[in-house]
Design brief:
The complex is a heterodimer of chains A (292) and B (326).
Chain A: H1 2-13, H2 20-45, H3 50-67, E1 82-85, H4 91-100, H5 140-153, E2 160-165, H6 172-183, E3 189-195, E4 198-199, E5 202-203, H7 204-207, H8 213-219, E6 223-228, H9 232-240, E7 250-255, H10 278-287
Parallel strand pairs in A: 1-2, 2-3, 3-7, 6-7
Antiparallel strand pairs in A: 4-5
Helix pairs in contact in A: 2-3, 2-4, 2-10, 3-4, 3-9, 5-6
Chain B: H1 17-29, E1 35-39, H2 49-54, E2 59-61, H3 66-78, E3 82-88, H4 89-92, H5 97-106, E4 112-116, H6 134-139, E5 145-147, H7 152-163, E6 169-172, E7 195-198, E8 203-207, H8 212-226, E9 230-234, E10 237-239, H9 243-252, E11 255-263, H10 268-278, E12 285-290, H11 300-306, H12 311-323
Parallel strand pairs in B: 1-2, 1-3, 3-4, 4-6, 5-6, 8-9, 8-11, 11-12
Antiparallel strand pairs in B: 5-10, 7-9
Helix pairs in contact in B: 1-7, 3-5, 8-12
Classes of the chains: A alpha/beta (292), B alpha/beta (326).
Pfam families (chain B): Transket_pyr, Transketolase_C
Cofactor (chain B): thiamine diphosphate
GO molecular function, one term (chain B): transketolase activity
Amino acid sequence: MEATKDVTLTLHNSLLTDDSSLITHHLSLKSREYRRNILKYIYKAKAGHTGGSLSCIDILNVLYNEVLNVSPETFTSPDRDRYIQSKGHCVEALFVVLADKGFFPESDLETLCKYQSHYIGHPTRKVNGVEQNTGALGHGLPMSAGVALAAKMDNRDYRVFTLMGDGELPEGSNWEAALTAAHYKLDNLCAIVDLNGLQITGPTKDVCNTEPLDKKFESFGWAVRHVDGNDVVALKEAFDALPFEKGKPSVMIAHTVKGKGVSFMENELKWHHGVPSEEQYKIAMQELSPAP
Amino acid sequence: MGNELIQAPLAGTGAANQDVFSETLQALAATDRNIVVVTSDSRGSGKLVPFGKKYPAQIVEVGIAEQNLVGMAAGLASAGKKVFAVSPACFLTARALEQIKNDVAYSNNPVKLIGISAGVSYGALGSTHHSLHDFAVLRAIHNMTIVVPADSFETTQAVQQVAASEQPYYLRFGKKPMPLLDETGETTFQIGKGRVIRRGSDVAIIANGETVYPALQAAQKLATENGIEATVVSMHTIKPLDEKLLSELALECKAILTVEEHSVNGGLGEACASWLLKNRYHKPFDILGIPDEYTVTGSQVEILNHYGISESGITSRVKTLLNTLT
């Protein structure tokens, strides 16, 4: 395990060579490691939002490893970049990335969803690295808009990112904030929609159709870009292009696959918060082998 | 506790508490550029137009969108701003309750929620515009201090104290001009500590906000006409409740009446009743507030008079309560 980490570190350092294939390799390894850990801790806890965590993990991977100017050392700095996870139920994805970035020991996740643990089924600030307590949907964007506005008021350069699920888009508070973010020209704000197309009841388009989503955001005054949300290279390119338009908030419509990375979980509704059996867990980990 | 009186003025009018709030905030903003007001098309009723003109960089307008008002206020506060989120109490504490619960209280973002034109201040505009639920819902939310100043002194003090604090608060103001309760300046104001306006040992009248003044009027009438001496307390902080003072009142007075411009369910009265009963103070006790019914229509004064939240209504309720002793 230690040897593996050394290899990854070497790979990470070699990014300085600007070799895009190395970046891709490094990020791909990270995604696999994160997926393995998501499943590992959900399996141990016998609880968690498996499908959504697997759909959004590549986004968090690129954010925390390539985009966000934040670390355990800078987490209290007023100039740090902020990440607020609006789709709080996919907390397992956030926790494995925060552990990997050194915000807390990975062994803490052994207590996931256990009595008196801070590592519960939604993000809370009791966990180092978490910006806001989320979980009720439709809250990330308004709070992020507030933080982004504070940056503008204080002439600070930090940026604010929020990850929303496509299922939470009908919450009206999102659209209140969408109006305000455009009104105040918050081009330091980036919303990422994890468009995996499924929510607990069924396909998002059948529950409450939000298409055409790009046109909706555009008409609200946002700059929009579609991206393959499970392609780390495409994600990195999209994040590198921020803001998509000066003077406008940016939204990245990230097309993802719910349950991505495990064949029998992909696009299967039951894995919204399904927990793998022992056999399913073994098969899933086999598919995600070898361990990086 | 003897029958010593702190003489209070019974004539004349002062400023409305929500007007005093905006003036105090403007004074604070003069020396603190981190003070930010967030409004939802409510700067007019909040008397914040002068603030906006004087400090345009310190006022954020979100339009009529209370959920976003509170969510953004939480974000601003988390980034170091001293945020006052101002909106009519009826909308702020109902429409945006989930944002208050999660974004402010649970996430511990030190937003100062300012509910204006509270209670039945909007009178004939009807129940959509009344806030008779705000104490009840906010009392059940952890990490929320609830303060309801009674006059300009308490308002100024409360605004200054919450501005200097890094905790969430809910401050509730009405728009009726309120006389100063204590012109002697002998009483002090501290959040979490009830303010004794008048002392007497027959009955304790515990009120808050705009109901403290009629309680004081009633106390002076009871003394003059009936020889009944009442203690009058401005229990401006409902949560945390001043338990020490409650205990003193229960020991020293024969009966207790609470008065509030709120539903009789879940407000100041029930907070006091719960504590007193749990601590085995079994006194004649009554809660005067807005009953659980389709609220009568009319102006604020007419509504309050209808339900006895007035000098004569309180006087009468005290007499009834004391009659249970004989």
